Amino acid sequence: PSAPAPAPALARLPPLEAMRPPAPDEVAPLEAAMRPPPIPTTSRDSAVALRERGNAAFRGGDLVEAEQLFLAALHLDETDAKASANLSAIYLKRKNYVDTFSYAAAAMR
User: Residue 88: pLDDT above 70?
Assistant: First the structure.
């Protein structure tokens, strides 16, 4: 007797020998497409852009990302009172009252 024919779904699969992991040049474009846009790091406008991205992260509940973005904004523009106030709000949510006070005071300067 002959072997039964493979199921239709299996018949469409390539032979196992033809399956291979993707080559590095096939993976690189996919990895590049998945990366977030670069964080601008050169001007006061960049600090505002970072703060706005931090606001979005905060609204989305990602306090770690928001904190990093607000700190990056302050690194570019240490007079950004809104970034300081937003950091104060993050630290208040975490019940870190020392940093809450520190950044709230910086926001009022």
Answer: yes
- C-alpha–C-alpha distance, residues 95 and 109, integer Å: 23
**pLDDT for 42:** 57
pTM: 0.61
Sort 55 into a burial class: Cβ within 10 Å, 0-12 / 13-18 / 19+.
middle
Q: What is the Rg, in whole angstroms, of the alpha carbon atoms belonging to the chain?
A: 25
In the chain the first and final C-alpha atoms are separated, in Å, by: 90
- Taken in order 39, 42, 47, 48, the sign of the CA dihedral is negative
Specify whether the CB–CB gap between 81 and 93 falls below 8 A. no
